[in-house]
Amino acid sequence: MNAAGQEIEQRQAVTALRRKDLLGIAELTPGEIELVLDTAEAMKEVATRPIKKVPALRGKTVVNLFFEPSTRTRTSFEIAEKRLSADTLNIAIGTSSVVKGETLADTALNLEAMSPDMIVLRHSSSGACHMLSRICRSAIINAGDGMHEHPTQALLDAFTIRERKGKLAGLKVAIVGDLLHSRVLRSNIHLLTKLGADVWVCGPPTLIPADVQRFGVTATSVVEEAVGDADVIMLLRIQLERMEGAYFPSLREYFRVFGMTEARLHLARPDVMIMHPGPMNRGVEIASEVADGPYSVILDQVANGVAVRMAVLYLLAGGAEDEEAV
Amino acid sequence: MPVVMDADRIGRTLTRIAHEIVERNKGTDDLALVGVRTRGVPIARRIARTLREITGQEIPTGSLDITLYRDDLMRHAVGPQPLVRKTDIHFSIDNRKILLVDDVLYTGRTTRAALDALIDYGRPKAIQLIVLVDRGHRELPIKADYVGKNLPTSQHESVQVRLTEIDGEDEVVLESGGGA
Q1: Quick check: A67 and A104 in contact, CB under 8 A?
Q2: If pLDDT is split at 50, 70 and 90, which confidence band does B74 have?
Q3: Which residue among A82, B18, B50, B143 has its CA within the 20 to 30 Å range from the CA of A53?
Q4: pLDDT category of residue B78 using cuts at 50, 70 and 90
Q5: Which of A45, A311, A322 sits opposite B87 (nearest CB)?
Q6: Which chain B positions have a beta carbon within 8 Å of A324's beta carbon?
C-alpha cells in the first residue's frame, strides 16, 4: 500500500475541522475531507423538510464577496448560509468600490471593520484567498481563486461520486477539457488522489499543465484512453475568457476530437457517471444528448453543492483553536 | 460504579412504558416514535417492537439529530463544532401524536432542542416525552410523560446508559464525578 493508502486507513478519528479558513484542498487531510462529506450527508436532509432552515449559524454574518461572475456558486453559498440561519450579504464587483479603484485588501479590511464572521471570496487572482486569510480575522472560504483552487466544487464532486458509488478509492476518474485554466481540476486532483482514486486527465497538449503527472495523475491527449473503462467522466469547460492565444484550431475541431459524445461514453464502464461543474458549453466539451442523458449527474452536483457548502460553513464556524467543547 | 438498572430491569421498564402508552392514548392510532440520537434511537425501536407485540400495529419510528439546534452551539469563542449526524423521519408528523424518546432527562436542554427540531418537520397533534432515566436538575420547564426510573443524583455524578445495539450490553450506571 502506498502512503496515500496508509493515510486513508488512519483517517477514522477526525471529528472536527480545526481551521480558520478553507483555502484549498491541498492542505486538507483525507480525514478532514471525509468529515466534510459525512457532515454534508446530514445537511442534505435539511433540503427535504417543509421548513428548510436550522438555527445553527444564528447571529453569524457571512459576506459573499464575488469579483468574478458566478450564478451557481454564489447562489449555492447564499442558500447554504440562509438554511443555516446566517445573515448574508452579497457584494458583486459591478456595484462595489472596486470600480472606483479600491484594492482587494482595502475592500476586505473595510468589510472586516463591520465584523462579519466569514467571507466567501471569489477572485480572478490565484492566491487572493491566502492573502485575505493573513490580514482578516474572519474565516475565509475560497469560492474559486484564479487558476488555483475551487475547494467546495471538488468537495461536492466527491460527495456526488461517493453518493452513487459508495467510495472513491479505486475508481477510475477521467477529467477531460481545458485543464490548463481550471481551478476545478486542481482541487479535484488533490481531493481524488488523497482519497485513492485513479485519476486520468485529458485535453489538447496545449491545455495540459506542464508536469501535471507530478500530482499522481496520468495525462493523455487521446480521449479514448482516458475514458476507457472509466467509472466517472468529468468534463471541464473550455474557458475562452482566460485564453490569451490560440490553444486549438476551432471549437468545432475540439468537439470532434475531445467532445463527450454517446459513442465515447460507451467506452466507459456501463455504470459511468457524467459530471460537469458548469457552466456547460453544449456542443463543445459535451454533446447535448450526453448532458441530458441517463448517465448525467450534473444537476445532482448542483443540489449537492448546497449541502456541502452548509457543511463547510458549519464546520468552520467553530473556529480554529483546539479548546474543549461541551 | 453502582449499576442502577440491569438488562432485565431495562427490559421490564420499557415493557411497562409501552403499556402506559397504550393506556394513555387509548390504543396506538396516530402515534409515532422519534428517538433522539444517539441512545434514544434504539430505545424508540424497542418500544415500537413491544407496541407491535401488544397491539399488532406497526408504529412509524424515526430518529432525530439535535446538534444543529443546541443552545450551546457557537457559545464558545473558539472550538471545534460537534459532529452532526443524520435525521431520519420518513413519515409526516402532521396531526400525529409524537412520542419523543431519550435516554436521560437532565437539564432539559436537549429536549428543548428536540422540540424545536420536531416543529420544523410539521405540526404534530401532541408531543409526549419518554425517558429511561430522569436524574433531576432541570434548567428549563420540561417534564417527562413516561419515566423509566427516577434517579436522584448530584450534579457531580454522571448517568451512563449502555445499550446492546451501541455498547454491546444493557445497563445504566451512576458514575461519581470528581475525576473528569
Answers
A1: yes
A2: confident
A3: B143
A4: low
A5: A45
A6: 79
Q: Looking at this predicted complex, what is its ipTM?
A: 0.85
Calculate how close chain B gets to A210, using CA atoms only, in Å.
Answer: 39
* Host H or E run for residue B126: strand B126-134
Which residue does chain A place closest to B71, by CA atoms?
A56
In the chain, the amino acid numbered B11 is G
Question: Bigger pLDDT: A149 or A4?
Answer: A149
For residue range A63-74, list pLDDT tens digits in order: 999 999 888 999
Q: How far is A14 from chain B (nearest CA, A)?
A: 10
Q: Are A52 and A44 in contact (CB under 8 A)?
A: no
Average confidence score pLDDT of chain B: 93
Question: Exposed, middle or buried: residue B107 (CB in 10 Å: 0-12, 13-18, 19+)?
Answer: middle
Whether A322 sits inside 8 A of B79 (CB atoms) is yes
C-alpha cell at B135: 436524574
More confident residue, B179 or A295: A295
The distance from CA A13 to its chain's CA centroid, rounded to whole angstroms, is 24
- Supply the pLDDT for residue B103: 97
The Cα–Cα gap between A93 and A65 comes to 8
Chain centroid offset of residue A177 CA: 16
pLDDT tens-digit map of B1-39: 799 999 999 999 999 999 999 999 999 999 999 999 999
Per CB-CB distance under 8 Å, the chain B contacts of A315 are 81
Nearest to B86 among A41, A320, A326 (CB): A41
CA distance linking residue A54 with residue A182, whole number of Å = 34
Residue A267's CB: how many other CB atoms inside 10 A? 17
Distance from CA of B103 to the nearest CA of A (A): 18
Residue type, A64: N
CB B105, CB B75: distance < 8 Å? no
Q: Which of A15, A49, A324 sits opposite B79 (nearest CB)?
A: A324
Residue with cell 450506571: B173
pLDDT digits (tens, 9 = 90+) for A227-269: 999 999 999 999 887 777 788 889 999 999 999 999 999 999 9
Q: Which residue has the cell 467546495?
A: A152
